[in-house]
Amino acid sequence: AHSKITPMRKFQPTLEHALYALALAFAVGLRFLHLGALPLSDYEADWALQALQITQGLKPAIGPNPAYIHLTAVLFYILGATNFLARFWPALAGSALVLFAWPLRGRLGRIPALILGFGLAVDPGLVAMSHLAGGPMLAVVFLVLAALMVLDGHRAAAGLFAGLALLSGPSIWLGLA
Q1: Are the beta carbons of 30 and 127 closer than 8 angstroms?
Q2: Which single residue of 54, 128, 141, 146 could bond 161 by disulfide (Cβ 3.0 to 4.6 Å)?
Q3: In which region does residue 39 sit, left (phi positive, over 0), alpha (psi from -120 to 50) or beta (all else)?
Q4: Do 70 and 134 touch, CB atoms closer than 8 A?
Q5: Burial of 140 per CB tally in 10 Å (0-12, 13-18, 19+)
Q6: Percent residues over pLDDT 70 in the chain
């Protein structure tokens, strides 16, 4: 019995791919440029200090944002504690938010989804949230991922991302509102 092996399609980048890459570049640039330049606020320092204490072998009373604290503790352990690394995960999550417009192309249309991607890249509120260590950005991103998974019928993945949103702190309620 012979089975036909279908050759892999070669990826052909299109203008749409290039425009999404440009939107992602804008998002990364706006979120990571001078990310560690300003000192941490009291709010941010509290979250970062909990992560730092974990790397020192202490057992701090962990606040209601264990996802951020443990992800940041891993970075602090490997690379050392800096303001940049304290804000890294929210900035990365905020940058990734741009890519969530891609799966909506079928529902919204290509041009509106692309406009949404650029809007998510440059929105001042989202950029500001991405600069906040321990802030709501992780919860927002995981909540959006859960919603996208529900729309695509992937209930198990939706549950996973909803759980991660819950582990990202009480700011999930802001996202739900």
Answers
A1: yes
A2: 146
A3: beta
A4: no
A5: buried
A6: 93
Residue spans of the chain under pLDDT 70: 1-8, 174-177
Mean of the per-residue pLDDT values for the chain?
91
Name the token pair of 122: 């440059």
Residue pair 47/72 in contact (Cβ under 8 Å)? The answer is yes
Other C-beta atoms closer than 10 Å to the C-beta of 44 total 20
